[in-house]
Design brief:
Elements lengths: L1 E2 L2 E17 L2 E15 L2 E7 L12 H12 L7 E2 L16 H19 L3 H4 L7 E2 L2 E3 L5 H14 L4 E4 L6 H10 L5 E4 L9 H5 L9 E2 L7 H10 L4 E3 L6 H10 L4 E4 L7 H13 L4 E3 L6 H11 L13 H4 L5 E2 L8 E2 L10 E2 L1 H7 L2 E6 L2
Parallel strand pairs: 7-8, 8-9, 9-10, 10-11, 11-12, 12-13
Antiparallel strand pairs: 1-5, 2-3, 2-17, 3-4, 6-15, 14-16
Helix pairs in contact: 1-2, 4-5
The protein binds N-succinyl phenylglycine.
Length: 370
């Protein structure tokens, strides 16, 4: 039992080493919302995955800042906490805002694990182990550039390559990549850029031996995903469509997807991510851990989750250097034979560079029991 004494929000601008383009737009500058939860002489860290604009989900860092500071954090200040997911109990009435909820819940997991002296993977029911990882490659200016990039990542050792697609930048582009890398585990991610009318085009991808095609259709459209899956040999993977265990269970019942990308930040936290994982593991449905261009703080949570046994496919959890000139944690995440590992230690085990976070922060807020 720990009493939560204080919470600190920090908004930290961080420039990606490379512009990252997906079907809905490009980004190079991130505004990273961090949450530090103080209690029992320890600090637990969480990172909100909400983006700068509402293109991936309705949330932004601004809505998350609002909901965290007005509704989620105040009722838990000065109150005792038995388990990490309990931190969301007083705000169970808050609809949606899964990314805001996740930031608080993940900070609580880190705090509780640190107070128990346990690494986060163990607190989650897994064990510390290296996790196989892949890389997500954004839309490139040309197919040549894409092939070059993919080759570079394979040389670095990434175990699977995910390629962003959109209408007009799909079948031919991926055929060229497949032609150059005949045996590489490849997948495509459309971020909802297609409709069922594009089914013939998506069907043409079947000949490329992709591991899966991620989120081809609108997030809310499980019915059309099920219709599309009936026409495709390639398994559909769902990302944006899944915000809860109920969503995942329903998607499986409809056969709207055969693989899930689990991002704890998207599904309201690690407790919800575990529930989806357990449901899938019991049914032999493969899952992998996605990423949202996090700093090392969010990455450490993702690596911890990916140690669980149902995460049988390499996720979008790449080395710090793939994203940042300098990460916000030490040690930074480095690729070793296609895997990432946490250092030894309790909780997320990496150490946030507090001095740099304070120096970079463009907005701060402290909350405590009144
Ligand atoms: O390596 O963290 C990463 C990026 C993985 O492709 C990635 N994320 O749709 O899954 C996605 C995509 C994304 C990133 C979407 C940022 C929206 C914002």
């Amino acid at each position: 039992m720990v009493t939560l004494e204080r919470a600190a929000l920090r908004l930290v601008p961080l420039r990606l080493r490379e512009r990252f383009e997906i079907s809905s737009g490009a980004r190079q500058d991130r505004l990273i919302l961090l949450l530090a939860l103080h209690g029992g002489g320890e600090v637990g860290w969480g990172e909100c995955v909400a983006a700068e604009d509402p293109s991936y989900s309705p949330e932004t860092y601004e809505t998350a800042w609002h909901v965290l500071s007005e509704f989620l954090i105040p009722p838990v200040m000065g109150t005792p906490l038995a388990t990490a997911p309990d931190v969301l109990k007083p705000s169970a009435w808050v609809r949606g805002h899964f990314m805001a909820k996740a930031a608080l819940e993940m900070a609580a997991w880190d705090l509780v694990a640190k107070l128990e002296g346990r690494p986060l993977p163990e607190a989650l029911g897994g064990r510390v182990r290296p996790v196989e990882v892949g890389v997500s490659v954004g839309l490139q200016p040309s197919d040549e550039e894409l092939v070059r990039k993919v080759g570079g990542y394979l040389e670095e050792g990434y175990r699977r390559i995910k390629i962003k697609i959109k209408p007009g930048r799909d079948v031919e582009m991926l055929s060229r990549v497949r032609g150059r890398f005949p045996d590489t585990p490849l997948m495509a991610d459309a971020n909802s850029a297609y409709t069922l009318a594009d089914a013939p085009r998506l069907k043409a991808l079947d000949s490329l031996g992709l591991m899966m095609i991620e989120q081809p259709l609108a997030a809310g459209d499980l019915r059309d995903h099920a219709r599309l899956q009936r026409e495709l040999a390639t398994p559909i993977c769902l990302d944006e469509s899944i915000e809860s265990l109920a969503d995942a269970a329903w998607a499986l019942e409809l056969d709207a997807g055969r693989v899930f990308n689990i991002k704890p930040g998207r599904v309201g936290g690690l407790g919800s991510a575990l529930a989806i994982h357990d449901h899938c593991l019991a049914r032999g449905v493969p899952v992998w851990c996605g990423g949202m261009l996090e700093s090392g703080i969010g990455r450490a949570h993702n690596v911890s989750l990916a140690t669980l046994p149902g995460f049988t496919l390499p996720g979008d959890i790449s080395a710090s250097r793939r994203y940042w000139e300098r990460d916000l944690v030490s040690p930074e995440f480095e690729l070793s034979q296609g895997t990432l590992s946490l250092p030894a230690g309790a909780g997320i085990a990496v150490t946030p560079d507090v001095e740099r976070i304070e120096a970079l922060a463009v907005r701060t807020k402290e909350l405590s029991a009144s």
